[in-house]
Batch of 2 targets.
Target 1
Amino acid sequence: MPRARPKPGRGKRFVLDCSVALAWFFADEADPYADSVAKSLKDATAIVPGLFHLEIANILLVGERRKRNNRAQADSFLTRLAALPLLVDGQTASRAWSDTIALARTCGLSTYDAAYLEVAIRETLPIATLDDEIRDAAIAIGVPLYKR
Protein backbone atom coordinates (compact mmCIF):
# COMPACT_ATOMS: atom_id res chain seq x y z
CA MET A 1 0.00 0.00 0.00
CA PRO A 2 1.38 3.44 -0.90
CA ARG A 3 2.61 5.63 1.94
CA ALA A 4 2.84 9.05 0.31
CA ARG A 5 -0.37 11.03 0.33
CA PRO A 6 -1.06 13.18 -2.70
CA LYS A 7 -3.60 15.92 -2.26
CA PRO A 8 -7.15 14.56 -2.65
CA GLY A 9 -8.92 15.76 -5.74
CA ARG A 10 -5.90 15.55 -8.02
CA GLY A 11 -5.45 13.12 -10.86
CA LYS A 12 -7.72 10.25 -11.70
CA ARG A 13 -10.72 9.59 -9.44
CA PHE A 14 -12.52 6.34 -8.72
CA VAL A 15 -14.75 4.75 -6.11
CA LEU A 16 -12.88 2.43 -3.76
CA ASP A 17 -14.79 -0.53 -2.34
CA CYS A 18 -13.53 -1.77 1.01
CA SER A 19 -12.91 -5.25 -0.46
CA VAL A 20 -9.89 -3.81 -2.24
CA ALA A 21 -8.58 -2.02 0.84
CA LEU A 22 -8.95 -5.15 2.93
CA ALA A 23 -6.92 -7.13 0.41
CA TRP A 24 -4.04 -4.80 1.32
CA PHE A 25 -4.35 -5.93 4.94
CA PHE A 26 -5.30 -9.58 5.07
CA ALA A 27 -2.55 -11.76 3.59
CA ASP A 28 -5.01 -14.46 2.56
CA GLU A 29 -6.94 -11.88 0.52
CA ALA A 30 -3.91 -10.41 -1.28
CA ASP A 31 -4.65 -9.80 -4.93
CA PRO A 32 -2.70 -8.38 -7.90
CA TYR A 33 -5.62 -6.14 -8.87
CA ALA A 34 -5.75 -4.69 -5.35
CA ASP A 35 -2.00 -4.11 -5.51
CA SER A 36 -2.39 -2.21 -8.79
CA VAL A 37 -5.15 -0.08 -7.29
CA ALA A 38 -2.87 0.74 -4.34
CA LYS A 39 -0.09 1.78 -6.70
CA SER A 40 -2.47 4.03 -8.62
CA LEU A 41 -3.14 6.06 -5.47
CA LYS A 42 0.21 7.76 -6.02
CA ASP A 43 -1.53 9.96 -8.56
CA ALA A 44 -5.24 9.23 -8.11
CA THR A 45 -7.94 9.94 -5.55
CA ALA A 46 -10.34 7.34 -4.18
CA ILE A 47 -13.88 8.37 -3.34
CA VAL A 48 -15.59 6.36 -0.60
CA PRO A 49 -19.14 6.42 0.75
CA GLY A 50 -19.71 7.68 4.27
CA LEU A 51 -19.89 4.13 5.63
CA PHE A 52 -16.39 3.16 4.47
CA HIS A 53 -14.56 3.96 7.71
CA LEU A 54 -17.10 2.12 9.86
CA GLU A 55 -17.07 -0.87 7.54
CA ILE A 56 -13.27 -1.11 7.60
CA ALA A 57 -13.15 -0.64 11.38
CA ASN A 58 -15.77 -3.32 11.95
CA ILE A 59 -14.05 -5.87 9.73
CA LEU A 60 -10.73 -5.28 11.48
CA LEU A 61 -12.42 -5.60 14.87
CA VAL A 62 -14.10 -8.86 13.84
CA GLY A 63 -10.69 -10.01 12.58
CA GLU A 64 -9.23 -9.35 16.03
CA ARG A 65 -12.02 -11.31 17.69
CA ARG A 66 -11.48 -14.22 15.31
CA LYS A 67 -7.68 -14.05 15.77
CA ARG A 68 -7.05 -13.14 12.11
CA ASN A 69 -5.13 -10.08 13.22
CA ASN A 70 -4.29 -8.23 16.39
CA ARG A 71 -4.93 -4.70 17.57
CA ALA A 72 -1.44 -3.44 16.76
CA GLN A 73 -1.73 -4.71 13.18
CA ALA A 74 -5.16 -3.11 12.80
CA ASP A 75 -3.98 0.19 14.26
CA SER A 76 -0.95 0.25 11.97
CA PHE A 77 -3.11 -0.46 8.92
CA LEU A 78 -5.61 2.25 9.90
CA THR A 79 -2.76 4.75 10.19
CA ARG A 80 -1.53 3.87 6.71
CA LEU A 81 -5.07 3.92 5.31
CA ALA A 82 -5.68 7.36 6.82
CA ALA A 83 -2.64 8.66 4.92
CA LEU A 84 -4.14 7.76 1.53
CA PRO A 85 -5.89 10.24 -0.74
CA LEU A 86 -9.45 9.29 0.20
CA LEU A 87 -12.40 11.63 -0.17
CA VAL A 88 -15.53 10.76 1.79
CA ASP A 89 -18.77 11.28 -0.10
CA GLY A 90 -21.00 13.70 1.77
CA GLN A 91 -24.27 12.45 0.33
CA THR A 92 -24.24 8.79 1.43
CA ALA A 93 -26.66 9.31 4.32
CA SER A 94 -29.08 11.57 2.45
CA ARG A 95 -29.37 9.08 -0.41
CA ALA A 96 -29.61 5.92 1.73
CA TRP A 97 -33.41 5.90 1.92
CA SER A 98 -33.92 6.79 -1.73
CA ASP A 99 -31.36 6.10 -4.45
CA THR A 100 -29.29 3.58 -2.49
CA ILE A 101 -32.14 1.37 -1.30
CA ALA A 102 -33.68 1.46 -4.80
CA LEU A 103 -30.35 0.41 -6.30
CA ALA A 104 -29.99 -2.37 -3.72
CA ARG A 105 -33.44 -3.66 -4.63
CA THR A 106 -32.78 -3.49 -8.36
CA CYS A 107 -29.35 -5.16 -8.18
CA GLY A 108 -30.01 -7.62 -5.34
CA LEU A 109 -27.29 -6.05 -3.17
CA SER A 110 -27.11 -5.04 0.46
CA THR A 111 -27.55 -1.31 0.98
CA TYR A 112 -23.93 -1.22 2.14
CA ASP A 113 -22.70 -2.58 -1.19
CA ALA A 114 -25.19 -0.46 -3.15
CA ALA A 115 -23.77 2.68 -1.47
CA TYR A 116 -20.50 2.21 -3.36
CA LEU A 117 -22.32 1.83 -6.67
CA GLU A 118 -24.59 4.78 -5.94
CA VAL A 119 -21.55 7.03 -5.52
CA ALA A 120 -20.02 5.66 -8.73
CA ILE A 121 -23.24 6.31 -10.67
CA ARG A 122 -23.81 9.80 -9.27
CA GLU A 123 -20.19 10.88 -9.75
CA THR A 124 -19.83 9.00 -13.08
CA LEU A 125 -16.73 7.23 -11.81
CA PRO A 126 -15.38 3.72 -12.23
CA ILE A 127 -15.41 1.42 -9.23
CA ALA A 128 -12.53 -0.62 -7.83
CA THR A 129 -13.87 -3.77 -6.22
CA LEU A 130 -13.01 -7.40 -5.58
CA ASP A 131 -16.56 -8.19 -4.50
CA ASP A 132 -18.19 -10.44 -7.10
CA GLU A 133 -21.72 -9.16 -6.44
CA ILE A 134 -20.71 -5.51 -6.70
CA ARG A 135 -18.66 -6.22 -9.82
CA ASP A 136 -21.52 -8.12 -11.50
CA ALA A 137 -24.02 -5.40 -10.60
CA ALA A 138 -21.67 -2.70 -11.89
CA ILE A 139 -21.27 -4.48 -15.20
CA ALA A 140 -25.03 -5.08 -15.48
CA ILE A 141 -25.90 -1.41 -14.98
CA GLY A 142 -23.01 0.02 -16.97
CA VAL A 143 -20.70 1.28 -14.22
CA PRO A 144 -17.13 0.87 -15.46
CA LEU A 145 -14.63 -1.13 -13.44
CA TYR A 146 -11.52 0.78 -12.41
CA LYS A 147 -8.37 -0.04 -14.33
CA ARG A 148 -5.02 1.37 -13.38
Note: The longest strand covers residues 12-16.
Target 2
Amino acid sequence: MIKSKSGDVLALLLSLTSFAGVALAQSNPPSTPQSSTTQSQAAQSDEKERVFGVIPQFSVTSQSSLTPLTSGEKFRLFLRGSFDPFTFFSSGFQAGLSQATDEFAGYGQGAAGYAKRYGATFTDQVSSGFFSNYFYSVLFKQDPRYFRIGHGTIKSRVFRALEQEFVVRKDSGRRTFGWQNICGAFTSGTLSNAYYPSTDRGVGLTISRSAIAILYGSAGGIFSEFAPDIDRKLFHRKKINEDPKTP
Protein backbone atom coordinates (compact mmCIF):
# COMPACT_ATOMS: atom_id res chain seq x y z
CA MET A 1 0.00 0.00 0.00
CA ILE A 2 2.89 2.35 0.79
CA LYS A 3 4.38 1.52 -2.56
CA SER A 4 1.15 2.45 -4.34
CA LYS A 5 0.96 5.77 -2.47
CA SER A 6 4.47 6.63 -3.59
CA GLY A 7 3.52 5.64 -7.13
CA ASP A 8 0.34 7.72 -6.96
CA VAL A 9 2.24 10.84 -5.90
CA LEU A 10 4.86 10.29 -8.60
CA ALA A 11 2.08 9.78 -11.15
CA LEU A 12 0.51 13.05 -10.00
CA LEU A 13 3.81 14.87 -10.41
CA LEU A 14 4.30 13.36 -13.85
CA SER A 15 0.78 14.44 -14.80
CA LEU A 16 1.51 17.99 -13.64
CA THR A 17 4.75 17.85 -15.59
CA SER A 18 2.96 16.71 -18.74
CA PHE A 19 0.27 19.36 -18.30
CA ALA A 20 2.90 22.07 -17.83
CA GLY A 21 4.80 20.85 -20.89
CA VAL A 22 1.69 20.92 -23.07
CA ALA A 23 0.70 24.36 -21.78
CA LEU A 24 4.15 25.75 -22.48
CA ALA A 25 4.24 24.21 -25.94
CA GLN A 26 0.90 25.79 -26.79
CA SER A 27 1.80 29.21 -25.36
CA ASN A 28 5.24 29.50 -27.00
CA PRO A 29 5.55 30.03 -30.75
CA PRO A 30 7.65 27.59 -32.77
CA SER A 31 11.36 28.40 -32.73
CA THR A 32 12.99 29.77 -35.84
CA PRO A 33 15.73 27.63 -37.42
CA GLN A 34 18.36 30.01 -36.06
CA SER A 35 17.05 29.88 -32.49
CA SER A 36 16.74 26.10 -32.69
CA THR A 37 20.40 25.89 -33.70
CA THR A 38 21.35 28.15 -30.80
CA GLN A 39 19.34 26.03 -28.36
CA SER A 40 20.94 22.88 -29.75
CA GLN A 41 24.43 24.30 -29.28
CA ALA A 42 23.53 25.35 -25.74
CA ALA A 43 22.20 21.87 -24.99
CA GLN A 44 25.40 20.30 -26.28
CA SER A 45 27.42 22.65 -24.10
CA ASP A 46 25.32 21.73 -21.07
CA GLU A 47 25.76 18.02 -21.78
CA LYS A 48 29.51 18.48 -21.28
CA GLU A 49 28.90 20.03 -17.87
CA ARG A 50 29.30 16.80 -15.94
CA VAL A 51 31.69 16.78 -13.02
CA PHE A 52 34.03 13.79 -13.22
CA GLY A 53 32.27 13.04 -16.51
CA VAL A 54 29.24 11.65 -14.67
CA ILE A 55 27.52 14.05 -12.28
CA PRO A 56 25.28 16.53 -14.17
CA GLN A 57 25.64 20.25 -13.50
CA PHE A 58 23.00 21.51 -15.94
CA SER A 59 21.83 24.30 -13.63
CA VAL A 60 25.33 25.59 -12.84
CA THR A 61 26.92 28.44 -14.76
CA SER A 62 30.15 30.39 -14.49
CA GLN A 63 28.73 33.29 -16.50
CA SER A 64 27.60 36.28 -14.46
CA SER A 65 25.77 38.07 -17.29
CA LEU A 66 23.08 35.83 -18.71
CA THR A 67 19.67 36.46 -20.18
CA PRO A 68 16.87 35.29 -17.87
CA LEU A 69 15.35 31.88 -18.43
CA THR A 70 11.85 31.68 -19.86
CA SER A 71 9.27 29.49 -18.13
CA GLY A 72 9.82 26.91 -20.87
CA GLU A 73 13.56 26.89 -20.29
CA LYS A 74 13.06 26.48 -16.55
CA PHE A 75 10.75 23.56 -17.26
CA ARG A 76 13.30 21.89 -19.53
CA LEU A 77 16.00 22.45 -16.91
CA PHE A 78 13.82 20.69 -14.34
CA LEU A 79 13.19 17.78 -16.72
CA ARG A 80 16.85 17.28 -17.57
CA GLY A 81 17.94 17.30 -13.95
CA SER A 82 15.11 15.12 -12.62
CA PHE A 83 15.21 12.42 -15.29
CA ASP A 84 18.91 12.24 -16.03
CA PRO A 85 20.34 8.67 -15.77
CA PHE A 86 22.47 9.79 -12.82
CA THR A 87 19.29 10.68 -10.90
CA PHE A 88 18.01 7.12 -11.24
CA PHE A 89 21.39 5.80 -10.09
CA SER A 90 21.66 8.17 -7.11
CA SER A 91 18.11 7.32 -6.03
CA GLY A 92 19.04 3.64 -6.02
CA PHE A 93 22.18 4.33 -4.02
CA GLN A 94 20.31 6.40 -1.42
CA ALA A 95 17.60 3.74 -1.18
CA GLY A 96 20.30 1.14 -0.55
CA LEU A 97 21.81 3.20 2.28
CA SER A 98 18.36 3.76 3.73
CA GLN A 99 17.67 0.03 3.71
CA ALA A 100 21.05 -0.80 5.21
CA THR A 101 20.40 1.51 8.18
CA ASP A 102 16.73 0.47 8.36
CA GLU A 103 15.61 4.06 7.87
CA PHE A 104 11.83 4.26 7.37
CA ALA A 105 11.42 0.92 9.10
CA GLY A 106 7.76 0.88 8.09
CA TYR A 107 8.83 0.00 4.56
CA GLY A 108 10.23 -3.32 5.75
CA GLN A 109 13.21 -5.17 4.30
CA GLY A 110 13.86 -7.35 1.27
CA ALA A 111 13.11 -6.50 -2.36
CA ALA A 112 9.71 -5.00 -1.49
CA GLY A 113 11.24 -2.72 1.15
CA TYR A 114 13.94 -1.58 -1.27
CA ALA A 115 11.37 -0.89 -4.00
CA LYS A 116 9.35 1.29 -1.61
CA ARG A 117 12.46 3.19 -0.51
CA TYR A 118 13.54 3.65 -4.12
CA GLY A 119 10.10 4.94 -5.09
CA ALA A 120 10.06 7.37 -2.17
CA THR A 121 13.60 8.62 -2.84
CA PHE A 122 13.00 9.14 -6.55
CA THR A 123 9.68 10.87 -5.88
CA ASP A 124 11.44 13.14 -3.38
CA GLN A 125 13.93 14.19 -6.04
CA VAL A 126 11.33 14.81 -8.73
CA SER A 127 9.10 16.67 -6.28
CA SER A 128 11.94 18.88 -5.06
CA GLY A 129 13.04 19.69 -8.59
CA PHE A 130 9.51 20.43 -9.78
CA PHE A 131 8.64 22.86 -7.00
CA SER A 132 12.03 24.54 -6.48
CA ASN A 133 13.43 24.70 -10.02
CA TYR A 134 10.18 25.16 -11.92
CA PHE A 135 6.94 25.95 -10.08
CA TYR A 136 8.15 28.48 -7.50
CA SER A 137 10.90 29.69 -9.81
CA VAL A 138 8.24 30.72 -12.32
CA LEU A 139 5.81 31.96 -9.65
CA PHE A 140 8.34 34.25 -7.95
CA LYS A 141 10.21 35.07 -11.18
CA GLN A 142 13.51 33.76 -9.77
CA ASP A 143 16.49 32.11 -11.48
CA PRO A 144 16.97 28.44 -10.47
CA ARG A 145 20.60 28.34 -11.63
CA TYR A 146 23.65 28.30 -9.37
CA PHE A 147 26.03 31.11 -10.34
CA ARG A 148 29.52 29.82 -9.69
CA ILE A 149 32.03 32.31 -8.28
CA GLY A 150 35.17 30.51 -9.49
CA HIS A 151 37.71 32.86 -7.87
CA GLY A 152 38.69 34.38 -4.53
CA THR A 153 39.54 32.76 -1.22
CA ILE A 154 38.08 29.41 -0.22
CA LYS A 155 36.30 31.06 2.70
CA SER A 156 34.62 33.69 0.51
CA ARG A 157 33.55 31.11 -2.05
CA VAL A 158 32.09 28.84 0.63
CA PHE A 159 30.16 31.78 2.07
CA ARG A 160 28.78 32.80 -1.32
CA ALA A 161 27.87 29.18 -2.10
CA LEU A 162 25.90 28.90 1.15
CA GLU A 163 24.33 32.29 0.57
CA GLN A 164 22.89 31.32 -2.81
CA GLU A 165 20.48 28.93 -1.17
CA PHE A 166 18.84 31.89 0.57
CA VAL A 167 19.68 34.85 -1.66
CA VAL A 168 18.99 34.29 -5.35
CA ARG A 169 18.63 36.24 -8.55
CA LYS A 170 15.33 37.41 -9.86
CA ASP A 171 14.73 37.16 -13.59
CA SER A 172 15.27 40.92 -13.65
CA GLY A 173 18.83 40.42 -12.36
CA ARG A 174 18.21 41.83 -8.88
CA ARG A 175 18.98 39.79 -5.77
CA THR A 176 16.16 38.66 -3.50
CA PHE A 177 15.24 36.11 -0.84
CA GLY A 178 15.27 32.55 -2.20
CA TRP A 179 11.57 31.78 -1.93
CA GLN A 180 11.90 29.14 -4.64
CA ASN A 181 14.31 27.07 -2.53
CA ILE A 182 12.61 27.50 0.83
CA CYS A 183 9.03 27.05 -0.40
CA GLY A 184 10.15 24.19 -2.64
CA ALA A 185 11.74 22.34 0.27
CA PHE A 186 8.72 22.71 2.55
CA THR A 187 6.20 21.86 -0.18
CA SER A 188 8.11 18.74 -1.15
CA GLY A 189 8.53 17.82 2.53
CA THR A 190 4.82 18.19 3.16
CA LEU A 191 3.94 16.14 0.08
CA SER A 192 6.16 13.29 1.29
CA ASN A 193 3.68 12.66 4.13
CA ALA A 194 1.43 11.10 1.52
CA TYR A 195 3.80 8.16 0.94
CA TYR A 196 6.16 7.92 3.92
CA PRO A 197 5.38 5.30 6.62
CA SER A 198 2.94 6.51 9.29
CA THR A 199 5.74 6.58 11.88
CA ASP A 200 7.67 9.08 9.73
CA ARG A 201 4.92 11.62 9.23
CA GLY A 202 3.79 14.68 11.13
CA VAL A 203 4.47 18.39 11.44
CA GLY A 204 7.69 18.05 13.40
CA LEU A 205 9.20 15.49 11.04
CA THR A 206 8.07 17.49 8.01
CA ILE A 207 9.84 20.62 9.28
CA SER A 208 12.93 18.57 10.11
CA ARG A 209 13.04 16.96 6.65
CA SER A 210 12.51 20.33 4.96
CA ALA A 211 15.30 21.94 6.97
CA ILE A 212 17.61 19.05 6.09
CA ALA A 213 16.69 19.47 2.41
CA ILE A 214 17.69 23.15 2.62
CA LEU A 215 21.02 22.14 4.21
CA TYR A 216 21.54 19.62 1.42
CA GLY A 217 20.86 22.41 -1.05
CA SER A 218 23.56 24.52 0.59
CA ALA A 219 25.97 21.57 0.50
CA GLY A 220 25.08 21.11 -3.16
CA GLY A 221 26.08 24.72 -3.78
CA ILE A 222 29.49 24.11 -2.22
CA PHE A 223 29.91 20.99 -4.35
CA SER A 224 28.96 22.90 -7.51
CA GLU A 225 31.41 25.65 -6.58
CA PHE A 226 34.49 23.52 -6.02
CA ALA A 227 33.89 20.27 -7.95
CA PRO A 228 35.01 21.73 -11.31
CA ASP A 229 38.31 22.80 -9.70
CA ILE A 230 38.85 19.30 -8.34
CA ASP A 231 37.85 17.81 -11.68
CA ARG A 232 40.42 19.94 -13.52
CA LYS A 233 43.18 19.05 -11.08
CA LEU A 234 42.43 15.34 -11.30
CA PHE A 235 42.02 15.16 -15.08
CA HIS A 236 44.09 18.23 -16.06
CA ARG A 237 41.18 19.81 -17.90
CA LYS A 238 41.33 23.40 -19.11
CA LYS A 239 38.91 26.05 -17.90
CA ILE A 240 36.05 26.75 -20.32
CA ASN A 241 33.46 29.48 -20.33
CA GLU A 242 34.80 31.01 -17.11
CA ASP A 243 33.68 34.53 -16.21
CA PRO A 244 35.85 36.39 -13.69
CA LYS A 245 32.98 38.63 -12.63
CA THR A 246 31.24 37.97 -9.34
CA PRO A 247 27.43 37.59 -9.68
Note: DSSP finds eight helices and six strands in the chain.
